[in-house]
Amino acid sequence: MSADLAPRCPRWLAAMGMLAALLAAMPACCGEPAPFDPLLARPPELDRGKLLPGDEQGMVCTSSSYGPGKVLTLADAVDLALCHQPQVQATWASIKLQAAQLGEARAAYLPTLNAGASRYRDGISAEQGSSTRSVGTLYATLTWRLLDFGGRSANQRAADVLLQAASASQDATLQKAMAAAVGLYYEAHSAQAAEQARERALQLAHQVLATAIKREQRGVGSLPETLQARSFVAKAELELARAVGQHKRSLVALAVGLGLLDQAGDVPVLTLSSEVEEDPLGLEQNLPGWLQSARQYHPAILAARAQLEAAREKVKVARSEGLPTLDLSASRFINGRPNQAGGSRGDRETVVGLNLNIPVFEGFARNYKIDGAQAQVELREAELRDVQAQVLGDIATTYAEATTALRSMASSRSLLEAAQRAVESVRRKYDAGAADIVEMLNAQSVLSEAELERIRCLSDWRSARLRLLANAGEMGRSSFATSSAPLKPPA
After folding, report:
1. How far is the C-alpha of 278 from the C-alpha of 281, rounded, in Å?
2. Do 162 and 101 touch, CB atoms closer than 8 A?
3. d(CA 26, CA 36)
4. Measuring CA to CA, which residue among 185, 121, 151, 203 is closest to residue 316?
């Protein structure tokens, strides 16, 4: 813009300067923690955090990771999974993306304003002499769509339900992440308990071997009994080695599932908390109740329904694009129109008009676009049925696992108590010479298997109960007693 234009157009220059300053300040507004959201398209959960079902408080994802030597509880494992799993982080980005698309849909109701400036110079040469003229122009154009027969409203409704679908999909992803973390944690905990049980079995085998050696030295026992005891010790050592290997594998799987492997650059040393054995209270409701609740409130089903509703709105959008539109336009020109010679300083021109656009023929493209949108509706309907079948099937399967584990709890406790009494009884008889080595080793084997069965039953019950909550979409962090602030996107 030329310097000689400034004194003649101070108001326009000031207005354009303010507009340029506003545009320059927008990127600073769009950063964290207060994004620029004049159309209120950003959901509050991105700023205040999302609470899980049944929770009054959630958690805040921080940059801190699991430290060596720290005892890893189940709540800690779930927190790490929610903060570090890429699938969960992708859901936050998906919500932001759908919020931006909702903002675009709402912006379609607002007018658009374009402004610009240009400068041209022309020279004339003649016999009488030559002359040069330099003229700068300013212009602004406002365009506002007044009528479009429902296209913008359908597009906004589609954006609304797609944002709801993104939020529900995040809920479903969180439930899957928590269920996976629970499963991996209890697998590692069971492997740890199995290793400890094998260590106790090896200690008992060494005690039996020591007793057999003393009996042989006193002449009460025999060499075959001592060899049997040594064989039993070797078998116990082999089983302990296998249990140690299984425990290590389960810890690696847990670290990978919680996203700790990438942070540490190596397999971190995980120390699991000791679970307090509690008598089960039973399931909260029967299978029909779980299924009915899932049909109404499961986030995966809600997301599929929202996707179907958005597809139906897209059909309306496709149909409305073939209908007439009415636009209001207003333009203001100073010193002539841009890119057109002949204007003079001081010229002022205002143009206001209504533009009616009536689509007549588009080569049948509109028909095919509508057919494609309707096919999307059929596809979303099939996906909804598939999601419902998968969710209800997972609930039924997990419910059967939970009820089976619940029934096995009492039996495993009775088996363990009986095996412990049998070992004590046979040991006293063996020390007194009233029982042989075979009876003692059999009792010890039964005790070892009873301990493992008790560990399996406890792990199966705890895991199945929590996985049932997750498969029904009702698991919250309150399910395993924790407290912090609302779950928010990782920084």
Report:
1. 9
2. yes
3. 7
4. 151
In one-letter notation, the amino acid at residue 436 is: D
Q: Please write the tens of the pLDDT for every residue from 5-58.
A: 333 444 443 444 444 444 444 443 333 445 788 998 999 888 777 777 777 765
193-196, long-range: CB within 8 Å, 24+ apart, which pairs? 193/455, 193/459, 194/243, 194/246, 194/247, 194/452, 194/455, 195/240, 195/243, 195/244, 195/246, 195/247
- Contact predicate 320/150, CB 8 Å: yes
Q: Please name the residues in contact with 98: beta carbons below 8 A apart, sequence gap of 6 or more.
A: 159, 162, 163, 165, 166
- Separation CA 1–CA 202 (nearest Å): 91
Name beta bridge partners: 348: 334
Sign of CA dihedral 307, 310, 312, 315: negative
Residue 390 CA to chain centroid, in angstroms?
19
Q: Which of 277, 334, 310 is nearest to 458 (CA)?
A: 277
User: Residue by residue, what is the 3-state secondary structure of the chain?
Assistant: CCHHHHHHCHHHHHHHHHHHHHHHHHHHHCCCCCCCCCCCCCCCHHHHCECCCCCCCCCCCCCCCCCCCCEECHHHHHHHHHHHCHHHHHHHHHHHHHHHHHHHHHHCCCCEEEEEEEEEEEEEEECCEEEEEEEEEEEEEEEEEEECCCHHHHHHHHHHHHHHHHHHHHHHHHHHHHHHHHHHHHHHHHHHHHHHHHHHHHHHHHHHHHHHHHHHHHCCCCHHHHHHHHHHHHHHHHHHHHHHHHHHHHHHHHHHHCCHHHHHCCCCCCEECCCCCCCCCCCCCCHHHHHHHHHHHCHHHHHHHHHHHHHHHHHHHHHHCCCCEEEEEEEEEECCCCCCCCCCCCCEEEEEEEEEECCCCCCCHHHHHHHHHHHHHHHHHHHHHHHHHHHHHHHHHHHHHHHHHHHHHHHHHHHHHHHHHHHHHHHHHHHCCCCCHHHHHHHHHHHHHHHHHHHHHHHHHHHHHHHHHHHCCCCCHHHHCCCCCCECCCC
**Which of 249-258, 275-284, 392-401 shows the lowest mean pLDDT across its residues?**
275-284
Do the beta carbons of residue 186 and residue 459 sit within 8 Å? yes
pLDDT, tens digit, 9 for 90 and up, residues 226-252: 888 888 889 889 999 999 999 999 999
Helix 151-218, helix 86-107: angle, nearest 10 = 170
